[in-house]
Amino acid sequence: MNYSSATNQPSISQLQPVPDNSNSLNIRTGNPDLKPEYNHTLQAQLNLVSPFRNKNLFWLFYLQTTQHKIVNADSIDALGIKRTRPVNVNGVYNINSNIQYSFPLKAIKATIELSSAVNYNKGKQFVNGIVNHIKSLSAGPEIRIDMNPHRNINISAGTAYRYNQARYSLQAAFNTNYLQQEYNASFDWELPKRFYLSTDFTYTINRRRSEEFNTSIAIWNASISKQFMKNNRGELKIMANDLLNRNLGINRSSNQNYIEDSRVNTLRRYFLMQFTYSLSKTGLNNAGGGGMRVITR
Fold this sequence. Notes:
The protein is an all-beta fold. It is built from 1 helix and 18 strands.
């Protein structure tokens, strides 16, 4: 268990009582009476390991609360002009918890991992002098199975569900719930003569978002590599990323007075040839990440 505290000083722009009129519809003014933020952080961690039974339990708890948290106080006049001024508030905190448990299934030479994560955040803002309590919750389970049917073959599969919720005390119309599902699988095969074949597939489903943002995204990657040189120090790998050319970034952010769904164009299908040379005497299998890598396309 660990406790720590730290301060966060307000910026010059937050302290300077001079209106910023660069956006005539959103005028910002500093507050010279701001106090520094004072953060309190409590972290607890538990690890239980049974090496003979190959069972593991991991639990992590994180709590952070802030005194004199700097938030925005907005006032909107009849013409729709918003004026923003930073103020200090109390009662703002964030809680995270994660638990994982893994155990073997000897009948199929597999390991099962069950996990769950919860994130709860409570914040405050002001609209025309009235406090707006903002609460967000994210939670969901995950299950994963790793199998070794042969000493040269490793197969993994998993699924995860994530439920997200946002609540506003002043603007109930902005309350939202949405769900994200993910299914994934991977296959690794050590072939004769130090050839390696790897492939993985991830399928993500977005639900209860805005129209045209409830998309399903399938990502398929594959690679083949060959190790050579003394002690297998060299590796030549050919990789194919996003073979289906479907990669797409979907993100949702909850703000003080609006919810934003964004779609970002990301790097899609591409092929890569990579050469890795390990500086370790034991070669790539035990290099521990230390080595020199040259990448060409």
